């Protein structure tokens, strides 16, 4: 069915001062093919895509679109050549309406020299693209009223409206729920069947094995190998990315009955004031929380941690009732939260590793009310060593670390104190595969020390792999709790969608 | 630290230039004393302004507070004959109370700092004029116990305002750069949400910053009142908030919050005063006063920015080589 | 939150209504009176004395009712807004000190079509105002020049201080001084401006003492310049050595004259501005236009106050202010 590749990158080299980002990298994409591009953070995926998008110029190498050699000097070159990008962080203006986003920068005009925007043409022009993606929204509504998944589809619609023949999706599912992810993957398959070529970048290997026709792996700025459709398996992909087998990705728990450390009784949050939640988390276990986004998992976690109001309900720690009016009370009690959005609420990214690690327990590093930098540095070094945080030093600003290492710094904030209960919301979002495994091991080690670890995750594979038990939430209530023996993707999905586990 | 070096360099260059120009009298005892007096007065409240800017806020009400405070102090001392310690404490307490109100409205009710303090600017100016009945209030030649010697006297050859500034700067240096509260101020200024999620009582930190700043403003205000010795309620202190904001921002405070240092604020204050001194000493027409100030500051900030960019580029290139494996190249470049 | 904010709002609304009602009552009783207004160009003691003059006019002629408007922000825009408000309230005559005479002229002309307009203190000579009552600032400058002559008969360096030189009265006063002191032994160094920032005014004076240690005389053209110069001279321990000549009657200035540290001050008579402008406005409205001279200018003479005349002046002043 395919003759010659629609896109070819040949022998691409790119050097930055002091570092070689890409060295002799090649990539081919055929018409109507989904190519997954995988690799750890820093492997060169972003640089390669920036060259494709005209943001960087390659030092060596050629780019062919069809048979024709081209040079992509800027972003608009890429657009005219039919290359569309949907970025991880959505680049849309959520205060504009849907149609305004789709036609951003090339709004149809009328009224001659006055250059007024022809809103009607914009709206009617948006409809076919939205329809093609199966997105049933009014192009006149403001973008911010849509869900993240819908916003993502609007981005794709924008690219398609520019006649994109090659679509680059960079981590498109990192903020989506399981259901939304499934729908997006279906959309990608539809687009492929319509002849659009897709370059799909993701850390989620499960998605890749579902959607990709071919996998291209990068490692240290070089081609690390390819996998045809029939060889795409988890193990093969991991081996290509890290250059060796990743043994024991998930570490199983020891099992056995343990005493409950955290008990939550009849808790009602503002997100679902009509639903009460009760559950227990034992010391030594990892309790997974699965469910759709909007099921109230994060709100519940934040309410237990005290940053949101708990409308009603009791929280017992080691059997005694605690009044947690705010997160200072929770922290004093040893209940810690690693929040969902680490850049917004987990870290002060402009501050250094040291300042972040010591922030919650700053009084522990004081002498006569003054901070001892030495004590801070000693503790931070200890955390860096024990968690294998890869940072140039304790005084490095956190914003200069990779996602995985940032997440480890958030964990280090709490491990520098003494946790009784650790709630981790989306522990590996935007974290590469090597750091993922380390974070899983860390969480398991914490549990083994007697901490009750609660992991909220929208990554099905992760929640099944890491948990000892899984509580599935549906519309603000716990739809069911599964023991390890009962784990299956189907059961979790059924509960998450409000059916019974057995169905 | 880079910013401080830049502004310090600019200040030094100006001072050296002024010192070597013949007949400029820049280094004469009288001129140094005058400059110390002014830097002391403006420096104290600029530090307060800097603290607020570090939390990501702003205070536009300072100038009007000076007028209100001066008018009331004069009335208490001259017309009501209150004992000077009582009157002084009452005025300082009152001003701090205004700061507490600002802090409450901003941190607890979540009004914008710009709006709250802009209303302060209008309200206090109006109150000052009303209370003074639009008359200029003054202190005449009375000494009011130790108050005038403290506010407008000398320790040896050094004006007390400068001595007070040094004491305030040392204390605030420790508070800002060495204490838990100081660290919290920076954390709140950079990312209030993350600070809250780390267990910091962000409302208290922000609210108290406004009270602290007003305490410093009150000290400055008393010195200022005795410096001019007469307070015209409509004109006294007008636009002085801008001197404070300019000093803080020149000294490296970012209006987005979370950045700045005491040293920087002191250097910024000194630069603003020396620039005005330069205009008079070089015999430049005073109509050019603001233009000279604006030009020199702009040039300084521009040089600082351009130099800073080059340094950080070189630093980044060098940093990547030494960076541990795993630091994402795309982010480091 | 919402309930929290509601009550203060209601309270403020009630308060405003109460004040409003109060106002209408008084204006109802004053219906038969001639309604006059006086608008200042800023707020200062100068105008407080002027207000006393207006009150005196009300005593002298019980038929007039004066609305005295002390302008807060010293801007032409603010003044125009006050004029509009007063017209809306039905004033019959307005006396004002225009902030920006040239640019307010059209507004004054428009106003003069419906009510009688006087300029006081500062003139807008090209407008259709019926009359100007105030100081002849050139003459006042000449008087100051004479004072300087007495202060430094052998001549010397002179520095002049003022808020801004774009104000007509500042230019006129400076012109008057220079007319008198044409002898080259009087050496004018410069004019230092401070944008009415009193701290800057004092710093300017202090810088001058540093830069010109042999300065003979310092002249302050605006009322706060006198105390500012006095403060700087005292801080520099040069009191008595450097002669100070200034304008107006700031409390500090008068105290300085009394102690001898200020050689002398030229004072206007704002009390007369207020009194005479109100009395004459009432007369013109009543149909008696004879009070306006052909030149349409009534000059109230300025007085020169030195140490020997200060006690007499203060006693008189207190009497006017009813102290």
CATH superfamily membership of the largest domain in chain A:
P-loop containing nucleotide triphosphate hydrolases
The number of domains of chain C? 2
- Classify the beta-strand content of chain A into a percent band: 25-35%
Report how far the terminal alpha carbons of chain C are from each other.
50 Å
Task: Find the CATH superfamily of the largest domain in chain C.
Answer: Response regulator
Notes on the protein architecture:
- Chain A has a 6-stranded mixed beta sheet with strand order 6-9-10-3-11-12, sandwiched between helices.
- Chain A is 33% helix and 26% strand.
- Chain A is built from 17 helices and 24 strands.
- Chain A folds into 3 domains: 241 residues, Rossmann fold; 161 residues, Rossmann fold (3-Layer(aba) Sandwich); 67 residues, no CATH class.
- By secondary structure, chain A is of the alpha/beta class.
- Chain B is mostly helical and 333 residues long.
- Chain B has one domain: ABC transporter involved in vitamin B12 uptake, BtuC.
- In chain B, 74% of the residues lie in helices and 2% in strands.
- Chain B contains 14 helices and 4 strands.
- In chain B, the strands form 2 sheets. In chain B, strands 1-4 form a two-stranded antiparallel ribbon. A two-stranded antiparallel sheet of chain B has the order 2-3.
- The C terminus of chain B is likely disordered.
- In chain C, helix 2 crosses helix 10, helix 5 crosses helix 6 and helix 7 packs across helix 8.
- In chain C, the strands form 2 sheets. A 6-stranded parallel beta sheet of chain C has the order 2-1-3-4-5-11, sandwiched between helices. Chain C has a 6-stranded mixed beta sheet with strand order 7-6-8-9-10-12, sandwiched between helices.
- Chain C is globular, with a radius of gyration of 22 Å.
- Chain C folds into 2 domains: 126 residues, 3-Layer(aba) Sandwich (Rossmann fold); 131 residues, Response regulator (Rossmann fold).
- Chain C contains 11 helices and 12 strands.
- At the A-B interface, helix 1, helix 10, helix 11 and strand 20 of A face helix 8, helix 9, helix 13 and helix 14 of B.
């Amino acid at each position: 069915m395919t003759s010659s590749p629609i896109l070819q990158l040949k022998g691409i080299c790119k050097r930055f001062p002091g570092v070689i980002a890409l060295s002799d990298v090649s990539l081919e994409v055929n018409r109507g093919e989904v190519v997954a591009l995988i690799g750890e953070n820093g492997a060169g995926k972003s640089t390669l895509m920036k060259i494709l998008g005209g943001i960087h110029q390659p030092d060596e190498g050629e780019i062919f679109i069809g048979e024709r050699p081209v040079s992509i000097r800027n972003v608009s070159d890429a657009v005219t050549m039919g290359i569309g990008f949907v970025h991880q962080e959505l680049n849309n203006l959520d205060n504009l309406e849907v149609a305004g986003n789709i036609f951003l920068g090339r709004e149809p005009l009328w009224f001659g020299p006055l250059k007024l925007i022809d809103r009607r043409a914009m709206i009617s022009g948006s409809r076919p693209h939205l329809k093609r993606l199966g997105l049933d929204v009014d192009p006149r509504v403001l973008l911010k009223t849509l869900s993240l998944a819908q916003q993502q589809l609007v981005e794709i619609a924008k690219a398609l409206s520019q006649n994109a023949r090659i679509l680059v999706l960079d981590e498109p599912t990192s903020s989506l729920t399981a259901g939304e992810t499934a729908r997006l993957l279906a959309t990608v398959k539809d687009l492929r069947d319509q002849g659009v070529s897709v370059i799909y970048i993701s850390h989620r290997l499960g998605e890749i094995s579902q959607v990709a026709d071919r996998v291209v792996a990068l490692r240290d700025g070089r081609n690390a190998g390819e996998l045809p459709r029939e060889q795409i398996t988890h193990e093969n992909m991991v081996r290509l990315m890290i250059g060796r087998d990743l043994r024991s990705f998930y570490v199983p728990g020891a099992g056995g009955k343990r005493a409950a450390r955290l008990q939550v009784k009849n808790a009602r949050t503002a997100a679902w004031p009509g639903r009460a939640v009760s559950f227990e988390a034992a010391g030594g276990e990892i309790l997974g929380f699965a469910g759709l986004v909007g099921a109230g998992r994060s709100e519940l976690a934040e309410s237990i941690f005290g940053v949101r109001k708990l409308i009603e309900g009791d929280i017992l720690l080691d059997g005694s009732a605690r009044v947690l009016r705010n997160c200072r009370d929770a922290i004093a009690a040893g209940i810690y939260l690693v929040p969902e959005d680490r850049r917004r609420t987990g870290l002060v990214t402009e501050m250094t590793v040291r300042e972040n690690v010591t922030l919650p327990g700053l009084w522990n590093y004081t002498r006569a009310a003054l901070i001892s930098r030495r004590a801070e540095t000693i503790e931070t070094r200890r955390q860096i060593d024990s968690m294998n945080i890869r940072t140039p030093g304790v005084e490095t600003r956190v914003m200069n670390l990779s996602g995985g290492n940032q997440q480890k710094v958030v964990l280090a904030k709490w491990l520098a104190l003494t946790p009784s209960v650790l709630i981790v919301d989306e522990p590996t979002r935007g974290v590469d595969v090597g750091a993922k495994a380390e974070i899983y091991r860390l969480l398991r080690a914490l549990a083994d020390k007697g901490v009750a670890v609660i992991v909220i995750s929208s990554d099905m594979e992760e929640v099944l792999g890491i948990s000892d038990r899984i509580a599935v939430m549906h519309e603000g209530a716990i739809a069911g709790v599964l023991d390890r023996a009962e784990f299956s993707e189907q059961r979790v999905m059924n509960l998450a969608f409000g059916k019974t586990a057995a169905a | 630290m880079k910013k401080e070096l830049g502004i310090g360099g600019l200040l030094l260059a100006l001072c050296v230039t002024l010192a070597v120009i013949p007949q400029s009298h820049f280094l004469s005892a009288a001129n140094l004393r005058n400059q110390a007096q002014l830097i002391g007065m403006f420096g104290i409240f600029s530090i307060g302004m800097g603290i607020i800017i570090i939390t990501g806020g702003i205070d536009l009400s300072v100038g009007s507070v000076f007028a209100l405070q001066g008018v009331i102090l004069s009335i208490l001392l001259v017309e009501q004959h209150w004992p000077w310690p009582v009157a002084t404490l009452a005025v300082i307490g009152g001003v701090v109370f205004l700061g507490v109100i600002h802090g409450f409205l901003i941190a607890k009710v979540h009004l914008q700092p710009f709006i709250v303090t802009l209303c302060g600017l209008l309200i206090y100016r109006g109150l000052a004029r009303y209370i003074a009945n639009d008359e200029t209030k003054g202190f005449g030649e009375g000494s009011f116990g130790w108050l005038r010697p403290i506010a407008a006297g000398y320790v040896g050859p050094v004006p007390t305002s400068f001595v007070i500034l040094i004491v305030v700067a040392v204390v605030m240096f420790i508070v800002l750069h060495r204490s838990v509260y100081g660290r919290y101020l920076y954390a709140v200024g950079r990312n209030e949400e993350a600070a809250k999620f780390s267990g910091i009582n962000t409302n208290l930190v922000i609210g108290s910053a406004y009270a602290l700043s007003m305490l410093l403003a009150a000290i400055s205000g008393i010195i200022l009142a005795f410096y001019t010795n007469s307070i015209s309620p409509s004109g006294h202190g007008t636009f002085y908030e801008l001197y404070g904001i300019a000093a803080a921002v020149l000294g490296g405070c970012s209006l987005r919050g979370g950045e700045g240092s005491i040293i920087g604020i002191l250097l910024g204050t000194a630069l603003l005063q020396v620039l005005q001194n330069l205009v008079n000493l070089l015999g430049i027409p005073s109509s050019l006063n603001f233009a000279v100030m604006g030009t020199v500051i702009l040039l300084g900030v521009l040089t600082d920015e351009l130099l800073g960019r080059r340094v950080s580029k070189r630093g980044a290139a060098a940093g990547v080589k030494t960076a541990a494996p795993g630091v994402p190249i795309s982010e480091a470049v | 939150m919402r309930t929290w904010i509601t009550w203060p709002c209601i309270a403020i609304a009630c308060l405003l209504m109460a004040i409003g009602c109060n106002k209408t009552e008084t204006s109802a009783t004053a219906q038969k009176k001639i309604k006059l207004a006086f608008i200042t160009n800023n707020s200062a003691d100068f105008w407080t004395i002027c207000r006393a003059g207006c009150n005196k006019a009300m005593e002298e002629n019980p038929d007039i009712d004066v609305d005295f408007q002390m302008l807060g922000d010293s801007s032409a825009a603010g003044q125009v807004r006050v004029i509009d408000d007063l017209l809306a309230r039905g004033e019959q005559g307005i006396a004002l000190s225009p902030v920006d005479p040239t640019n307010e002229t059209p507004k004054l002309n428009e106003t003069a079509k419906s009510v009688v307009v006087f300029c006081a203190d500062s003139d807008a000579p090209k407008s259709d105002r019926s009359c100007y009552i105030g100081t002849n600032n050139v003459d006042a400058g000449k008087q100051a020049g004479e004072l300087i002559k007495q202060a430094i008969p052998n001549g010397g360096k002179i520095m002049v201080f003022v808020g801004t030189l774009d104000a007509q009265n500042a230019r006129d006063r400076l012109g008057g001084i220079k007319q008198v002191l044409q002898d080259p032994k009087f050496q004018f160094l410069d004019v230092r401006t401070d944008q009415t920032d009193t701290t800057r005014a004092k710093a300017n004076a202090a810088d001058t003492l540093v830069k010109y240690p042999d300065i003979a005389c310092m002249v302050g053209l605006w009322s706060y310049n006198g105390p500012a110069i006095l403060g700087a001279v005292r801080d520099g321990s040069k009191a008595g050595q450097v002669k100070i000549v200034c304008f107006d009657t700031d409390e500090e200035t008068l105290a300085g004259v009394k102690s001898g540290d200020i050689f002398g001050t030229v004072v206007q008579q704002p009390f007369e501005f207020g009194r005479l402008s109100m009395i004459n406005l009432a007369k013109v409205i009543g149909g008696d236009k004879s009070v306006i001279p052909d030149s349409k200018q009534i000059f109230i003479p300025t007085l020169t106050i030195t140490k020997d005349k200060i006690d007499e002046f203060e006693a008189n002043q207190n009497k006017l202010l009813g102290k």
